[in-house]
Amino acid sequence: MAFAACKHKVGRLSPKEMKKVLVDIHLAESYCTIVRDSLHKDGGKNYDSLQVYYKRIFNHYKITPQQFTESMDWYKAHPTELDSLYADIQPAVNSMQQSANKKK
Description:
The chain is an all-alpha fold.
């Protein structure tokens, strides 16, 4: 009965959920690498901002960092499924990149 009250998902994330989370995580990682500020003039990764983005992503998808890590570990242990995820993610990322390039 105690498990029924839990707000977070149990088990690994489905491929559909994992794709969405991974796209957002990779966008956050990219953004935190390219942003230059007074502390990161050389374009080094801003880990403070990245931590904030990760928290927002996990909250948005109603998952915990542990659930993401466990899911990622599962997909790493099953490379065929992981490759399939990234094969599906790549067109979405390419589309976003093309849209961003058109705005420049």
